[in-house]
Amino acid sequence: MNINYVGLIVQIILLTIVIFGIFFKAYAGEKGKNQATKEDIGEITKVVESIKTELSESIELYKNNLNYKAEHHTSLRSYERDAIFELDSKISSLISYLMAVDLSEISFERFNELEIVDLEYEKYYFDFNQADNRLDFFIEDDEFHNLKIKFLEAIFKIKQLYSAKTVKLIGLLSEVSLEIKNKPDIEYEAKMKLIQDRLELSKSWIDERLLIYYEVRETQINMREYLKKRLSELLKVKA
Rounded CA gap, 124 and 128, in Å? Predict the structure, then answer.
């Protein structure tokens, strides 16, 4: 039983005794040393029953209040737990998408895929940001805030690298397109050269991205360790 709950009951019982004592003293003063009549005993019984009823109602009210607070506390811990799992999932999804982007297949016919990649990135980043905002409701901590900053800095490095590579790829595609337009007879040679240049560009994208990924992965692990500790703390908290 909750210590505060026991304390409250004790206080109420003591209050009951004090009230009864005051009543009895007043009664004794009024009646003197005469023995109590049945009518007097009936009056005392009514008072005692009234006090017992009020005591019972007070205890029930206190119990209901405790139950409400316990349920509310449990709900908050459940919401925070869900928010932690959601953020961890969105972080993994964002990283996985950026690491899966392949520039080697982008050609004249699939040029619009560059725009699709940007749109998909914005979607994954938006989902991450939504999950982060939800968890911010529960966690206002400088350590976690700094971890997120490091994570986003690493993510933006990959995004900036991607942007730089796509600008270069667009330049290659535009250059070959112009060459073929001016000299149709070199179309085959121009396209073969484009394939080679595109493969080299794709390889540099993969290699440089991998170096940044190690930084991203480190920040992800640090954030995950922090969130694991937070989950452990939630399990230790008693309602």
Answer: 6
Q: What is the mean pLDDT of residues 54-64?
A: 63
- Residue in the block written with tokens 């790829």: 169
Same domain, 35 and 54: yes
Same domain for 136 and 103, yes or no, is: yes
Structure token pair of residue 63: 């119990």
Q: Of 71, 89, 105, at which residue does a domain stop?
A: 71
**pTM of the predicted protein model:** 0.67
Q: For 148-178, what is each residue's pLDDT tens digit?
A: 999 999 999 999 999 898 888 888 888 877 8
The two three-digit tokens of residue 212, written as one number: 């940044």
Range of the domain at 157: 80-236
Largest CA distance in the chain: 132
Cα distance between residue 67 and residue 60, in whole Å: 10
Tokens of 173: 């595609």
